[in-house]
Amino acid sequence: MTNTSHHHPSEKPARANRSLTSTLGTQQPLRNRLAAHAYRYTRISTLVLRVCIGLIFCWFGALKFFPGASAAENFAISAMTELTIGLIPDPVCLLLLAVLETGIGLALLTGFLLRWALAAFFLHMTGVFLSLLVLPDAAWHTAAVPTLEGQYVIKNIVLVAAGLHVAAAELTP
Q1: 109 with 51: CB under 8 angstroms?
Q2: What per-residue confidence (pLDDT) applies to 165?
Q3: Alpha helices in 64-155 (DSSP H)
Q4: Hey, is 87 helix, strand or coil?
Q5: pLDDT of residue 18
């Protein structure tokens, strides 16, 4: 006599597959919608990065036009003074940084003279990172523990990565 309450072993996976299919079925349309949005964003992501970097540079550069407005002002002036061997007076250092950063920002925002702006951006970032070496007492508590100013500089590595993406897109046909 056969017990009808027992299922053949092949029936359980079918039921499990039906359950998995229904779960995936409800997620698939959402996944497809998200993929479509991601694809559209991918097409403009370089522009978004360029504009965001441009806004940051315009904002922080504009602050330097108003002595005392930038939290990084003293650190930036000290670094520039060290890097120029003290040949440029502090107020001129601040004005040059303001013009440079604002100019880079405007070029990134508009795309006008973009390659020149990217070159200036990377030169500026080189100077920014050199500040960690030329102002060790202001940048570091100990070997691997940066001060607030040091942290302010180190976070720029993200801007450099974004700048590399923008530069790569600009230089590739």
Answers
A1: yes
A2: 95
A3: 73-83, 90-110, 114-134, 136-139, 148-154
A4: coil
A5: 52
Rounded to two decimals, the pTM is: 0.78
80: amino acid identity, one letter: M
Closest CA to 50 of 99, 118, 126: 118
The predicted pLDDT at position 82 comes to 94
Backbone angles phi, psi at 135, to 5 degrees: -125, 60
Report the distance separating Cα 120 and Cα 103, nearest Å.
9
pLDDT, residue 37, reads: 81
Amino acid letter, 64: K
Residues of the chain with pLDDT below 70 are 1-27
Residue 70 structure tokens? 């930038």
Give the C-alpha distances (Å, rounded to integers) separating 54 from 102, 111, 163.
8, 10, 10
- Show Cβ contacts of residue 170 under 8 Å, excluding neighbours closer than 6 positions: 114, 115, 118
Residue type, 61: G
- Structure confidence at residue 34 (pLDDT): 85
CA–CA separation, 27 and 16 (whole Å): 17
